[in-house]
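Prompt: For my understanding, could you write out one protein's sequence and C-alpha cells?
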Amino acid sequence: MPRSQKNDNFIDKTFTIVADILLQIIPMASGEKKAFTYYRDGMSAQSEGEYAEALQNYYEAMRPEIDPYDRSYILYNIGLIHTSNGEHTKALEYYFQALERNPSLPQALNNTALICHYRGEQAIRQGDPEIAEAWFDQAAEYWKQAIALAPSNYIEAQNWLQITGRFGE
C-alpha cells in the first residue's frame, strides 16, 4: 500500500488529499506526477522517522524528475536524512549536489555550515586548534551565504559570526 494511503493524522491526510487533487487538475507530464508522488511519500516517511523508506522514495523520485530546482529539494532531503543518521560526509555530498542545481537554497548552506562547525568542535576536543579554525572559517563562509539569501533567518549563526569576529570578513 502506498504511504499516501496509510496516513494516520489529520494534517497528513489533508495534505495527501490536496496533493492528489492537484495532481489530477494541474497539467503535468506523467513523469512529473510520478516524481511528485514519490517525493510526497518520501516526505511523509521522513516525518515519521522511517528514513530507509524515505530514501527509497526519494531515489525513486529522482528517476523521472528532470527539473533541476525540484531535484535540488529531493537531494536536500536525502542530505537531511544522512545528517540525522550521523553520516555527515554523505550528507555534505547531497547538500553540494542540491546547491549545484539550486544555489539559492539557504537551508542547504546552513546545514553544510552546521556540519563544518560540528567538525570544528570535534577538532577542538581532539586538541587540534588549527584544524578547528579551518572548519570554523568554512562554516562562516557557508553561513554568510545562507544569511545573504535569508537575512531574517539563522539568528544564532549571525550571533556566532559576530561574536567570533567572522561576520565582516
In short: The first helix runs from residue 10 to 25. The chain has a mean pLDDT of 88. The CA atoms of residues 55 and 78 lie 6 Å apart.
